[in-house]
Amino acid sequence: MKAEKAMDAKIYIPYESAEFCIMQIAGDMQTMKNKHQEMVQELEENYRIASRENQERTVQTICSHYQNKLHALKRILDLYQEKVEKKNSHWEERINSVSRQNETLQEDLRAEKNRSREEALQWQREKNKMLELFSTRLDLLHSHQASTLQELQMAREEVGKVQEMLKTSSQVENQQQDLSTEAGHALDNVYGPVHQTEGCSDTELPLEGAQARLEELKESLYKREREITELLDAEQTPIPPIPVAQPPCAVLLRTVVEKAHHVCSKVSEARLLLDHMLEDNCVALAQARDILDHMSPITEDDTNCKEEDNPDPEWSDSSDERASKLLLLQETLRECEITQMALDCIRVGASPSLSAPELEEILVKGEGVKSVCQQFLILQDQMKQLREENRQLVENYTSERIMRKKYYNMVNDMKGKIRVYCRIRPMCWAETAQGGAIIVERLDQYSVSVVTPRGLREFQFDQVFSEESSQEDVFQDINRLIQSAIDGYNVCIFAYGQTGSGKTFSMVGDRDQRNPGIMPRAFNAIFDIIQENATKFECKVSAYMLELYNDRLQDLFVSGAGAQTRRVEIKRNRKGLVFAQGAETKEASSAGELFAMFQQACASRHITATKMNVESSRSHLIIGIMLESRNLTNGSVSFGKLSLVDLAGSERAAKTGARDDQLKEATSINKSLSALGDVISALSLELPHIPYRNSKLTQIMQDSLGGNAKTLMIVNVSPCDCNLEETLTSLTYATRVKAITNSAQRNLESKEIAQLKEVILKLKAGQPVDDVDI
Ligand SMILES: Nc1ncnc2c1ncn2[C@@H]1O[C@H](COP(=O)(O)OP(=O)(O)OP(=O)(O)O)[C@@H](O)[C@H]1O
């Protein structure tokens, strides 16, 4: 009973003892905490060493691997080039020899043409001579004919006279008895003493004489008539027999007429033949055209016309056969066309006027030159092929070069080198108006060239964007960096360049956000990634937005009088992570909320119009987005920070026309940028001392340049020659930045450490700590 009572009785510990006990427990906890912290530090140190060694080994392996690959590629490329050069020289020689052959042939052709022209002239001359001869002979013949006719006329007259005489003599016979003396005298007068001397009677003698004479005349007349009839007949009949020897002009005339008839008959025959040929050719031409028209769609789409679609054997031919058929038809068509042309020329008596390709075509058909022409065509084909091969080789070489640069960038990336993108903006209105020339050009994905008075200068970057590149193009690769920030890395993206080169356009976008820049796109990307991984991670997003104006940090979330009084300091934590002490940090649960904060901050930013830019930023804009993500599977927590910086541009007072306040702003901007330049130079030269403390800007960017961040620099340049000096300076600085190595580390804590940290925070804040917390 007593024991039960004792059990029920409450045990009271004196206050001092309890306090002592609590103190002891607190002391124990503190010791435990210290031990834990030591363990954590040790673990972190071990992890860092291991990861660094591991990283270095990996980098070395990758480096040697890619170097080997590069060497091999280079060797292949050299071999290719050698081969191409050999082939080139071989083909050049062949082309030269064929060209020479061609020239000789052309000369021969010219000589042949001259000869035929001379022959034609000669023939023309001879023809003219012959015609002259014929015409003179014809004239002679005509005159001969005329004299014959005259003679005939005379003979007829004489016959008339004789007939008259005969009539008179018959009258005299009738009156013989009565008037014998009178008639005897009359006959004496007419026929003279011949009749008297022959001893005939007075009436018979002159009659017989006249009869004989008449006979003679008749005979001569008949002879002449026969001659003329024969001559006339000779004109009608093609080949008249020559029964008797004839005067040479008659023979000649007959021969000429005979030949003329022969030619005439041949000409008409030839005409007929020509007409037939023309008709046949027209038919053949029409047929060939018809078949070709019919066949064209088959060859255009061979694959569509399969056998099953077309039962016609012609259509069911293989595509090769159809191609050869088509070729044959085309040749036939060409032949028909040329024949047509030749026949037309023959018909109208014109000489053909051929153009060089037509002549070539005819030459190709000529037996003598056929092989040379064919050879020439084959060579031309081969040349085409070679050119194609060459083009492909150049393409291969270019893609190889780009690949090499890509791998080089990848290796650099792995080494922790800062990435640098170059963006060339389009010519602005003022530059065009003052007649500026474009001197900055994107050569390929990784190279940019600048025309300088000393010649062309080339710069290499991780990416080069031309004036045509869109905001999407620029942001494409940046998504990976956003993912890194969510994974717990410290990421910084900043734009650098002279005033008016497009930094704000790249980082913020245009005024009405029709072309949003990297910042608003990053806001969306953060929440898109969070949304995608909502089942695996839980992420908290908070942000601060500052501007560095006249070397003073201002919180852009605070407006009015508070903005002037609030003091914002740049601090670094134990891990070297930069943070803004005193700056208001706002949580955002969506991209829209973050964007609204950003718009509020931008509205407070210092912007003024200068001669170089109507909306010139007079301050450096710094946005820090903290991303705390808890792995829902293992409870580990990562802390990433995404810094987005839009720097103010370096400027020359003479160019911008800055005065008073603007001059003060410009001096401050230039001073901070010059300090940034010094840091970049020291880092690239791997100097032992890096002058981060010279400016607030360099302090802010300490973890991004040579620190533990994954950093991307966008160097913006103007394409115009009026900004040559500034462009060269920017590109040189950007090249130096490329040489800087960061050692990016992931800020990840295990579940236990994260819990302990929470407990400590609670204890610090004087909040109760549950068993579950520990
Ligand atoms: N890629 C581009 N495409 C079209 N317009 C552009 C581009 N880059 C810049 N611009 C235009 O050029 C002008 C100057 O650009 P922006 O204000 O971004 O220059 P900046 O480098 O930020 O200058 P500052 O340092 O003076 O602030 C703006 O009108 C902008 O719209």
From TrEMBL:
Coiled coil: 26-126, 207-234, 369-403
GO cellular component: microtubule
Transmembrane stretches, start-end: none
Amino acids binding ATP: 497-504
GO MF, one annotated term: ATP binding
Record's subcellular location: Cytoplasm, Cytoskeleton
Region (Disordered): 297-321
InterPro entries (UniProt xref): Kinesin-like_fam, Kinesin_motor_CS, Kinesin_motor_dom, Kinesin_motor_dom_sf, P-loop_NTPase
Annotated ranges, domain Kinesin motor: 417-740
Pfam families hit by this protein: Kinesin
Chief site of localization: cytoplasm
Composition-biased stretches (Acidic residues): 309-318
Keyword terms: ATP-binding, Coiled coil, Cytoplasm, Cytoskeleton, Microtubule, Motor protein, Nucleotide-binding
Gene Ontology BP term (one): microtubule-based movement
Domain of life: Eukaryota
Entry's family note: Belongs to the TRAFAC class myosin-kinesin ATPase superfamily. Kinesin family.
Protein's UniProt name: Kinesin-like protein
Organism: Esox lucius
Protein encoded by which gene: KIFC3
